[in-house]
Every structure is written in C-alpha cells, then in structure tokens.
Specification:
- The structure holds three protein chains of three kinds.
- Chain A is about 75% helix and about 0% strand.
- By secondary structure, chain A is mostly helical.
- Chain A has a single domain, classed as MetI-like (MetI-like fold).
- Chain B has a domain of about 190 residues: P-loop containing nucleotide triphosphate hydrolases (Rossmann fold, 3-Layer(aba) Sandwich), CATH 3.40.50.300.
- Chain B has twelve helices and twelve strands.
- In chain B, a hairpin with a 2-residue loop joins strand 4 and strand 5.
- Chain B starts with a strand and ends in a 16-residue tail after the last strand.
- Chain C is α/β, with parallel strands linked by helices.
- In chain C, about 30% of the residues lie in helices and about 20% in strands.
- Chain C has ten helices and twelve strands.
- In chain C, the strands form two sheets. Chain C has an eight-stranded mixed beta sheet with strand order 6-7-8-3-9-10-12-11, with helices on both faces. Chain C has a four-stranded antiparallel beta sheet with strand order 2-1-4-5.
- In chain C, strand 9 and strand 10 form a beta hairpin.
- The longest helix of chain C has 18 residues.
- Chain C starts with 5 loop residues before the first strand and ends in a 9-residue tail after the last strand.
- The chains are: A mainly alpha, B alpha/beta, C alpha/beta.
- Chains A and C meet through helix 8 and helix 9 of A and helix 2, strand 6, helix 3, helix 5 and helix 6 of C.
C-alpha cells in the first residue's frame, strides 16, 4: 500500500450543522425577524381558532341595539353599523385573508415555478413561448388584471384567489427562470448528465433544490401583496362577499362611518398593515440569510 | 547594504464566525535592494496575507495585525490610510493574480495608467499620456499609443497582466510585489511575463517579492526563498541551497512530490509520486507544537507535538540557510515509506 | 498494449459554437471553432494525455467525445459504435460505460447532496446495485477504493477539502464501472501537496481496474507522469501526437517545442542556463484562425509553404506524428 491510502484525515469540519439549521440560527439573530415570526404565528393561531374563541353570533348576527358602539371592555374594537363585534370580525377576517393569501400564492408559486423551471432549463423556443405569455400577464397593472379576471369569473373569494394567483404567477416564473439559468450551467449539472441522468431527474433533483432560496423570499413577500390585493378586491366589492368578514370589505364598509365610528375602519386597516409589514420584514430577513455573500459576512461579524 | 523592506514578527489574525483564524504567526524577512525574494506556500499558508498586511490592504474591521514592517526606514504597520496610499505605488508596486478583476472594466487602459501616474505627481495631460504610452511600450505591448484607448476586455490575459505591471511601474517603485502574478496564465505567456519582469528588474534596479506556489517558477527567478506553512516561515535559504539541500520535511515533501517533465522514463516505468498525507491545519485550531507535525514523515518525539521549533541554521557552516524543525536531515537519511 | 484495439475514435470531429447575431435581422458573425477537424484514436487500457493552452479546445474535445457538448461535424465512435447520431435514451444508457472527472471539485458536487448520494447517483440512474442496503454497500466500497472513510458518507461537500472532494468525484466516476474516463484538468484546482495524491490515485485505479483515460491538462509535467501517449492541441487542432516520452523529450512540432521549453523545472541551475523559446504575441482568435498552418503567426521557424498549406499529421520517426511542414510539405 502506498502512502496515499493514509491520506485519510477527518474533513475540515468547522460547521457540522445542516444548512437549514444554520439558516434558522442566523435568522434568530435578527430581532425584527423574530418579531415578524411572532406576529405571523399569532395571526395563524387566531385564524385557526377564531371560531372557537369568539362566538359565531358575534361575527354574523346583527344586534341593531348595540350598533356603532365605541371600543369598551365588552367590545374591545367597538361594534359596526349592524352591531357586530369588530374584534370578532377582525379575528375571523384573519382566517379569510390568510386563506386567500395562502391559496393565491400557492397557485402562483406552483404555476410560476413550473413555468420558470421549464423556460430556464430548456431555453430556446420553450423559453420564448412561456416567457412571452408571462410578459403579457405582467404588462397589465396587477390590480387591474385581477379585476379583469374577476369580471370574467364573477366576484367571490374563491375567484379572488384564482385571480390573484394568476396575477402573481409571472413574478415567480421570472425569479425561478433567472436562478435556473445560472444553476443549469453549474458543473454538477453537467456531472449528473455525464452520469446518464435525464432531464426530469436533473430538473427535480439538482436544479429545483438549488433555486429554492429566492423562491422562499418571494413567497413571503408575495403573501403580503396577495393579502393586500384581497383587501383591495374586497374593498371594491369583488372579493369576499357579505356577510363573510374580510379586512378589505370591513375597511370599505367602515369608510362610510369614518366620522361617527373611526374604529370600524382603523382596526381592520391596522390588521392589514401589521400582517403585510410582518411578511415583508420576514421576506427581507430571509433574503439576508439565504444570500450566500450576506451569509458569510453575517457569520464573520456575528462572532 | 541595508534592506529596503524589513518585516519582523508579523502576525495577522481574522475574526471569523468559527473563532480567531491565525493566518500569519510571526514572519520575519528582509528584502535587499535589487534582489528577488520568493515566498513559497500553498493556499492558506499566509503568503498572500503577509504582503497584503504590509501594505494595509486587509479589511480592518475583521483583522488584527501585529509586528513591524519597515520600508525605506519608515514603519508601515498601523499607519494611516493616507500614508500607506503614498507608499503603495510610489514605494511598493503590486501585481495580483487575476488581471481581469484588478482592472476597472469601464475605464480605458490609458485612463487607469494615467490615474496611477497622477496619484504621485502633478503633470500636464499631455505629459501623462506620453508617459503612459511609454510604460505600455516598456512592458512589451505593441502599438502602445493605440492600446491606450483599449478597454481591459479587449486584451488577452497576458496583455492585461502587462498593463497591471505598467500600472505598478507608474510610481517607479523600489519594491514590486507579484502575488501569483502568472498563476492564471498559460505557460508560454508565463514565460513572456517572467522574461519581462527580469528585464524590468535589470533596468530599474527594483527588488521583487514573488509570491507563488510554483517551485518551478521560483527556481528560475529567485535569489532567496522563504517557504511558508500554516502562517510561519519553515525554511529560508538562497535558492541553490534550498533546492540542493531542502532541510525542512515540508520543503522536502513539496519538492519530491512534483512530477518531473524531463524524467526519461515513460509513465508506466515511473514510481508513484511521493506524497504528503493529510492537509494543512485549520488556522482556527492550530496544533500546539509544530504545525506540520501531523503530516511529518520525520517526526521525532513528543517535543514536536508540544513545542514550536524555532527557525535555526541547518548547519554551523550555513548561517543563512535556516529551517524550523527539530530534525536535521542528512541526505542519506530518508525516512521509511517515502516512495 | 495492442495498438489495434481502439476504444474511442474521433473522425474529423468539429465543435463550432455560433456567435450570437448582433441584431434580430442580422446573421451570425461566424463561429468559435473550438474543435476544428480532429482525428484521434484512444486505445483500450491506455492513458492519452491531451495538452494545450487555454482556448485550444482540449476541454471541448473531451466533452464532445462524451457528447456532453454536441459535435457540429464529424463523428465519435465508442467501442465500434457511432454515438454521434445516437438517440438520447440509448446515449444515457451508454453513459454507464463512460465517466468524467471535473476540474473544480467545489463546483462539480451538488451542494444539496451528501457525498454518499453523489457517489451513488450513477447507481440509481442505471439501476445498479438495487436496494438501499446494496447501494450503501457499493458506495462504501467506492469510498474505500478512493481512500475516503465510508463513515463520512452522510456529510455534505462543503465539509470536505478540495482533495477529498476530488476523491468523491473520482468515486462517483467509478460507480458504474466505466471503461472510459475523461479527466478534465483533475488536479488544476488542487494545492501542490494534494496534487500528487490525486495523480497517484488516478494512476493506481487505471492500472488496477484496466481503465482507459483521456487526461486533459495544461500541465505537461503531470501529463508526462500519467500518460502513455500525449496529444498536443493548438487552436482546435491536434498538432502533435505520439509516445509520451518522445513528445516530451524530442518534440517534433515547433509549438510543442516551445511549450516544453516554457515549463519551469524546479532545479535552479538548469533553469538559469535554459534557453527558453519565448513565443511572441497571443493565440489568434479561434473565430478566424490564420490561413495555412494555424501556428504560423507565432512560429519561430515559419517558412514559405506555411501561409498557403494547412499541414496534416504525418509520421515523424516511429513514435510520433506531427502536423508541420518542416517534416515535408503536406496539405
């Protein structure tokens, strides 16, 4: 045996931890990110449990006798023009907003990532065709596009999800495609091909896992925009239909009473503001920890 | 003659996420006027960091530099950025490995040389342009007047490296530091650059510090060599002494691991190359004793494990040939299992 | 070695990369002729070294032999079968018998795969050693063959040094028990003290497993250490080919001569007295190579026939072939 057999040495292991754990550790160093996660976790919790925390009656049943009451110990956020508890409706609205946001982003994420993978990986006519369609979608102002889709499909929260999903598809497609363009040139992709891997295997096993970082960031930011869009569509009466509570709808209804009952508009508005802000802050923080250059800088300074 | 650059007990450490990385751990050397000093080492040996520390080019926020570097009677370590800027270029010129990233892609070659010239003296635009063309001619670029208007991407790698050398020469430096300056180049282009630097050195009488991992290049150009390992100088000698009598086990290992071009035997007849097992140590967790101990084929006893061997003359008769090892190698005394 | 048994053959192989058209209604201004008419035979069980400077087309040639880059002309035969027009499915199956070791051990391993997954990927692709346990055993065996501790199989590439990653890359190349491996600059990114380890490993594997190598490198000294025969490329063409000792010690093409003389030797007294042939100028653009002999613009021994006649490889002595008019005008 030659000496090279003894070349066996333990690897240079300055970091044993898996990547995702390291990502979380770095994320946990950012107080804003922690605050955003706490807020979002609270919202999800509220959305899931809204119906068991607050009585259904408070959400839906009018109580004309108690209409337009100011915030008090009994009605924390006051009551609306039909006497329904605004706190209960904001809480229930969280469920609607988050569901519409999540489903809409789910649609655009799936469609956009598939389009981006195919366009970026295969290039040439596949790329040209798919991306021109995306360009057409992208050329319209987002909200106008969503309104147009709803004009065709009809108003309602399910259709709002579809409309918002379509509107945000091109963003995911573009971001995915851009990352795929660089990953497909990586040597490890050529290495897989040289071993006999086919396109499906290369796309699913090598390309997709290596383009997730920007997609995760975009997902967080898109959730913010989707919730905002849902609010806007409901505000103009095309999204969630009464009597279902929706922040956008409540804001719109509260507008008429802004002089007598400010709480009807302010609390749903604040809910939208906080949620959108939290998703944006989380998205920014994720961008920082997922970008490899930022990441090494953060590790260096954090010591 | 007194040395033009004198480095004493230079220490550099980087603060990293994993702890303090001690990259340079007490390096001494002198650069005599007009001589070529080669600093040899692998990546991570601290050879490049040494020169960057001397010129104050390391990111201050995460770096700790201690020790002394005296250039032309003037201490450089800890001096202001403004002071160092005067020294860089006018006193010490520098050429890096990658000429593409060292040049600004959006400025013409002429503009970049002019900037280097104007940093050191006021002169009319016309005079600067004339001098820039002269410099390009001097580094062997054909049609220097025309090339002043070229952008870096329009030039080949060898030509870009010539431009870098012209920029380094703009301030008439006493010392030229070439950090892996030919590593990215093809051998035939490397031959051109080596010849160029040799000629310029003769014409300008400047000292050259050649930082490289390539022992072949060193053999051809150096007067004096220091070999670095894990941030320390493990051996220093005049070039002939180092190659004829390598005295540190690491130097020996490096020299004997090189495949020989002019070995007359065919590939099938040749023995396997001599190898050094293992890897250089992690600068965050340097061994307590000799940093080379885990890979050493000659390792003696527990002393190697606990004590850092000092740089000492290899023999009474060879005062300038020093090695940092407890073991004194005789030519006949090969360790077992080396081949 | 029986010279008759050809494993890989290139016939007038061309790889031209078209330059992008400058505008939507303009035609392409030409093509980069990376490989421009190469005839080559690689014998079973030998190591053919392929040397040349950056941009000469040596890596492209290595990739084209495995059809990782599509040839634009000529043909490649593997073990008697023309693979140039082979449908994708058959080609993928054939890839069990070929493999590649890449230059950059940092880039050639998927950062999201454990080294065990990377090494085992060819097994999964070709359905070899089916079953989790059997595959695991094979991966362990491969890691041992290349001198890695099998316990490290669940680690990720970033935890390994360059030399260790290159061993992972070599283990992956061996997984499907290939006949032919293209080693594309396998030591160029490694530190000096690690290069020798990897060179020795590659040589030992070749001898033990009876592999056939194309060893692509810019490092003539390393090529001499491993290669039975050496081919020298310049601007998309093979200008000299033959026995490794002959090409290294008695080069017959002026370019090989210059290349050999430019390689620094780690012996000061020899370096000092050495007559280096310093070539003037740069390699011409492979988009528009010079007429006649491509080397004539830099050749120190250029003479009348060079601009008009394109030299072809012809035997010089018994051990090598060179494409140069100094050995009789051809073409």
């Amino acid at each position: 045996m030659s000496i090279e057999e003894s070349a066996e040495t333990p690897p240079v292991t300055r970091q044993h931890r898996p990547r995702w754990l390291e990502t979380l550790t770095l994320l946990a160093r950012n107080p804003l990110a922690i605050a955003a996660v706490v807020v979002l976790a609270g919202l999800v919790f509220a959305a899931l449990l809204a119906e068991s925390i607050v009585p259904r009656d408070d959400i839906f049943t009018p109580d004309i006798a108690n209409r337009l009451q100011a915030p008090s110990g009994e009605h924390w956020f006051g009551t609306d023009e039909l006497g329904r508890d605004v706190f209960a409706r904001v809480l229930a609205g969280a469920e609607v907003s988050l569901r519409v946001g999540a489903v809409a982003v789910g649609i655009s994420l799936t469609a956009g990532v598939v389009v981006g993978l195919l366009a970026g990986y295969f290039g040439r006519w596949v790329d040209d065709t798919l991306m021109r369609v995306m360009d057409v979608l992208f050329a319209f102002p987002a909200l106008l596009m969503a309104i147009a889709v709803l004009a065709i499909l009809g108003a309602g929260s399910t259709n709002a999800m579809i409309a918002i999903g379509i509107v945000y598809t091109p963003i995911f497609a573009r971001i995915t495609r851009a990352s795929v363009l660089s990953v497909r040139e990586e040597v490890y992709v050529r290495a897989a091909r040289s071993a006999g891997a086919g396109n499906v295997r290369i796309i699913v096993r090598h390309v997709l896992p290596n383009v997730t970082a920007p997609i995760i960031v975009q997902t967080s930011i898109s959730l913010a925009f989707a919730i905002l869009s849902e609010a806007a569509l409901s505000f103009v009466g095309l999204g969630t239909q009464p009597p279902d509570p929706s922040w956008g709808r409540m804001l719109s209804e509260g507008r008429g009473f802004i002089e007598q009952a400010w709480w009807m508009a302010v609390f749903p508005g604040a809910a939208i503001f906080v949620t959108v802000l939290a998703f944006n802050v989380l998205g920014d923080a994720l961008r920082d920890v997922l970008d490899p250059r930022q990441r090494s800088a953060m590790k260096g300074v954090g010591a | 003659m007194s040395p033009v650059l004198s480095v004493r007990d230079l220490r550099v450490a980087f603060r990293t996420g994993g702890g303090l990385a001690r990259v340079v751990n007490g390096v001494d050397f002198d650069v005599e006027p007009g001589e070529t000093l080669a600093i040899v080492g692998e990546s991570g040996s601290g050879k490049s960091v040494t020169s960057l520390a001397v010129l104050g080019l390391l990111p201050q926020a995460v770096t700790e530099v201690h020790g002394s570097a005296v250039f032309d009677g003037d201490e450089l370590i800890g001096r202001s950025e403004e002071h160092l800027r005067r020294v860089r270029g006018a006193g010490i010129g520098m050429v890096f490995q990658d000429p593409m990233t060292s040049l600004n892609p959006v400025l013409t070659v002429g503009r970049q040389i002019a900037e280097a010239l104007q940093a050191h003296e006021k002169a009319s635009d016309r005079a600067v342009r004339t001098r820039a063309a002269e410099l390009l001619g001097e580094v062997g670029i054909p049609d220097p007047q025309g090339r002043l208007r070229a952008y870096p991407h329009q030039l080949s790698g060898g030509m870009r490296q010539r431009v870098m050398i012209a920029i380094a020469l703009a301030g008439n430096p006493q010392v030229l530091i070439a950090d892996e300056a030919t590593t990215a180049l093809d051998v035939t282009v490397q031959a051109q650059i080596l010849e160029l630097i040799e000629r310029l050195q003769g014409e300008h009488g400047m000292a050259v510090v050649w930082i490289t991992h390539d022992l072949g290049v060193v053999a051809g150009i150096a007067d004096h060599v220091i070999v670095m390992y894990a941030g320390r100088c493990v051996e220093e000698a005049a070039v002939d002494d180092l190659y004829s009598r390598p005295s540190h086990p690491y130097t020996r290992g490096l020299l004997s691991s090189l495949p020989l071009l002019d070995d007359p035997r065919s590939a099938r007849e040749r023995d396997p190359l001599t190898t050094m097992p293992g890897l250089p140590p992690d600068p965050v967790a340097l061994p307590e004793g000799c940093a080379f101990y885990p890979r050493c084929a000659y390792r003696l006893d527990d002393r190697c494990k606990t004590e850092v061997p000092p740089l000492a003359p290899v023999a009474a008769a060879a005062e300038n040939h020093r090695a940092a090892t407890f073991y004194r190698i005789d030519a006949a005394d090969e360790p077992e299992g080396q081949r | 070695m029986t010279q008759g048994d050809v494993l890989v053959r290139a016939k007038s192989l061309e790889v031209h990369f078209p330059l992008p058209a400058p505008g939507p209604f303009r035609s392409s201004p030409g093509a980069v002729r990376a490989v421009d008419g190469v005839d080559l035979e690689i014998f079973r069980g030998e190591t053919l070294g392929l040397v040349g400077e950056s941009g000469c087309g040596k890596s492209t040639l290595g990739n084209a032999l495995l059809r990782l880059v599509e040839p634009t002309g000529g043909a490649v035969e593997f073990d008697g079968t023309d693979v140039t027009g082979m449908p994708a499915r058959e080609l993928r199956a054939l890839r069990r018998r070929t493999a590649m070791v890449f230059q950059d051990p940092f880039a050639s391993l998927d950062p999201r795969f454990t080294v065990g997954e990377s090494i085992g990927e060819p097994l999964v692709i070709h359905g070899l050693h089916r079953g989790r346990e059997r595959r695991r055993a094979r991966v362990s065996e491969l890691m041992e063959i290349v001198g890695l501790n099998p316990d490290l199989r669940n680690r990720y590439p970033h935890e390994f040094s360059g030399g260790q990653r290159q061993r992972v890359g070599i283990a992956r190349a061996l997984a499907g028990e290939p006949d032919f491996i293209v080693c594309d600059e396998p030591i160029a990114s490694l530190d000096v003290s690690v290069q020798a380890q990897v060179v020795n490993l590659l040589v030992r594997l070749q001898r033990e497993l009876g592999l056939t190598y194309l060893f692509v490198s810019h490092d003539l000294a390393a090529v001499r250490q491993v290669a039975d025969r050496v081919a020298v490329m310049y601007l998309g063409r093979v200008v000299e080919i033959g026995d490794g000792v002959a090409v290294g010690d008695e080069p017959q093409h002026p370019y090989t001569e210059a290349l050999v003389s430019a390689v620094p030797v780690p012996v000061p007294e020899r370096e000092r007295v050495r007559e280096r042939i310093v070539l003037q100028g740069d390699i011409p653009s492979p988009t528009n190579p010079p007429s006649g002999c491509r080397f004539r613009t830099r050749c120190p021994r250029v003479f009348e026939p060079c601009p008009d006649h394109d030299p072809v490889l012809q035997p010089v002595g018994s051990r090598q072939e060179a494409a140069c008019h100094l050995h009789g005008v051809t073409g």
